[in-house]
Amino acid sequence: VRSYLPDLIPQDKIERILEAGRLSPSASNMQPWHFIVVTDPQKRGVIAKGGRYARFISEAPVTIVGCGNRKASPKWHIVDTTIALQTMVLAAAGEGLGTCWIGSFEETQVKELLKIPDDFSVIALISLGYPREKLDLAEKTFRLIRIRKKFEEIASSEEFGSPLGKKP
Ligand SMILES: Cc1cc2nc3c(=O)[nH]c(=O)nc-3n(C[C@H](O)[C@H](O)[C@H](O)COP(=O)(O)O)c2cc1C
C-alpha cells in the first residue's frame, strides 16, 4: 500500500504489531533488533526525501524503522530483523492496516535523524496506515510491480531445476 488516509493509528494496534515483532524467531534467540515508531511529520518528511521510491512515507501516519544489531549477531541480524518486520507486516494486515516495505532510504541520514547507535544498521522501513482506496499506483505500474514469477520458476523437486511432481 502506497497511499494512505490521514487517520491516526490507535496505540493498542501499534503495540500489538510491535508485539508480533517481539515474539519473532531469531538465531540463537539473540533478538538483535530494535524498532523505531516514527510518527512526527517533519521526521517522516526528511526520511521520505532521502529515498527515490519513498514519497508515501510523508502520507502514511507511521513509519517503522527496523534496526539490526550487527555486534549482537554479525551473521543473522539482517535475517532476524527482516523476519520480525515481515511478521509485523502480517500483524498489521490483521489489524486492517496497509504496509509497504521500503528499502529506498539514506541510511546515514536516518541514523543521524533518529539517533541510532553505531552498532545498529537500518535494515528496512515499513510504512503503516489505513489504505486509501483507488489511489495506490496507476493500473499499468500496478500490474508491472505486482506480477509474480511462475510456480515452476521458483520451486523444484529434489534438486534445483527439476520440475515439481517429477523425480530427477
Ligand atoms: C526489501 C524490500 C524493499 C522494498 N522497497 C520498496 C521501496 O523502497 N519503495 C516501494 O515503493 N516499494 C518497495 N518494496 C515493495 C515491492 O516493490 C513490492 O513488494 C513488490 O513490487 C511486490 O508487490 P506487492 O507486495 O504489492 O505484491 C520493497 C519490498 C521489499 C521486500
Structural summary, described in words:
- The protein has 168 residues and is an alpha+beta fold.
- The chain is 35% helix and 17% strand.
- It has six helices and four strands; from the N terminus they run αβαβαβαβαα.
- It has helices at residues 11-22, 41-50, 77-94, 107-113, 139-146, 151-154; strands at 33-38, 62-69, 98-102, 120-129.
- Strands 1-2-4-3 form a four-stranded antiparallel beta sheet, sandwiched between helices.
- Flavin mononucleotide (FMN) is lined by residues 2, 51, 53-54, 100-104, 124, 145-146.
Alpha carbon gyration radius: 18 Å
The number of distinct β-strands equals 4
Bound molecules: flavin mononucleotide
- End-to-end distance, in Å? 41 Å
Dominant shape: globular
Mean pLDDT: 94
Tell me the series of helices and strands, N- to C-terminal.
Answer: HEHEHEHEHH
Oligomeric assembly: single chain
Outline the low-pLDDT stretches.
none
Strand order of the largest sheet: 1-2-4-3
Strand content: 15-25%
How many DSSP H or I helices?
6
Percent range for helical residues?
25-40%
Structural class: alpha+beta
The largest pleated sheet is described as:
4 strands, antiparallel
